[in-house]
Specification:
By secondary structure, this protein is α/β, with parallel strands linked by helices. It has two domains: 2-132, Glucose-6-phosphate isomerase like protein, domain 1 (Rossmann fold), CATH 3.40.50; 146-327, Glucose-6-phosphate isomerase like protein, domain 1 (Rossmann fold, 3-Layer(aba) Sandwich), CATH 3.40.50. The protein contains twelve helices and nine strands. The two termini are 30 Å apart.
Length: 352
Amino acid sequence: MVIGIGGSSLGARAIYEFLLTSNSYAKDLLFLETVDPLEIKHLLRLIDLNDAQFVIISKSGNTIETVSIFKYLDSLIEINNTNCTIISEAKSNLTKFANNHNIKVFDLAENIGGRFSVFSVVGLVPLAMVGIDIDNLLNGCKRVADSFFAKEDYYKPIIRKARFLVENKNKFNINAIFSYSSSLESFNKWYVQLWAESLGKINVNGTRQALTPVALIGPVDQHSFLQLIMDGVRDKTLTFIKISDLKDGTIIPKATSNKFNDLDLDCTEGLSFNELLNKQADATIRSVEDQKDIPCDVITIRTVDEYNIAKLMFIYQLLVSCIGSFLQINTYDQPGVEHGKTILANDLKQQS
């Protein structure tokens, strides 16, 4: 069970839940990332506390939500070096706690921000614990990084997209991704944090920048948000994400009787659900392209594995970094978030 919030959990969760539907792991990976007591108790009911490893993740070591949940868990079961792993900066109070109690601790480098930390110990440690191939994850990152920094095949598409979004930010200030698989739902949440917390800044000229992320799942959101895209104000760009091979060949069966004759949808019979999903994506893509005034692009993931999800996530990390550079902002801090944390800490100190 990962105890962390925001960048401490979203990346690992995105990878795990993407892979989970196509793989069978000997261990489950759960994420406790809220102080909502109903959610805490619901998740804890799913596990045997005496047969669980708790991975406590906080870059600063003083994240209020994480430390509060940590203390609550210790009231239910003794947290010690047999059932706990800690990930934090080397100089943090959490690391000090780990060292004082002989708990295994992995040091997170100070220059790695939470939302960019998925391919550091923050993501790799819990993913490795359940049997995910972290070498293949890093191979995917390396493929994109080597290509980008050598200005090869990944370089131009990333730079071109970053330039377009920045040059047209006043007209198209909402950036939506339309992911055609429920396995990408947690990736969508990771994208929202990466995009919003990195790009909502005041630049060197004192001008407020705002590229607003929207994350959609197909085909579910075809029945809601697509209407706004098609007939609403032209203030949105759209990126479709498809998966060629979901590693599942489940077929929509052909009728063996006249039971479904009244439904008049025999055109889907014999198709796999994977094929139907991608045909829905293609039809939606064509409908958007036919409008001629909605900027859109398509990313196709070859299959469901560590290599391909790592490539996708690393591309987005590079894309956000390039956009931030063009906007002349600090892509890697989050002063707007820190102000609220300071207010909460002061209020709690006054009450104690």
